[in-house]
Amino acid sequence: MDEMKNKVIFITDDHEEVEFYVLEQTKLNGCTYLLVTDAQEEDEEGDAYILKDLSKDTDEAALYDIVEDENELELIAKIFEELLDDIEIET
User: Fold this and answer.
1) What's the CA gap between 33 and 24, in Å, rounded?
2) Which of 18, 23, 25, 79 could be joined to 35 by an S-S link, Cβ 3.0–4.6 Å?
């Protein structure tokens, strides 16, 4: 099985571990955004999410949240579509 290279594990508010695979990362206005998927292989279909880094410099671990604001989501999705030629993101 060919795994995507950047696997990250997130801990939910319920203390459950969720694995995502990072497809791309970008910065806008000083904020870091990740495009992640739950698909384990590149040719497998899965759900994709855009996460925003909400961490402060003093935090021990990174704190990411799913982008839900429609305007922010559309803007970041367009950036990821430009960075990754072969994808289209439905918001």
Assistant:
1) 8
2) 23
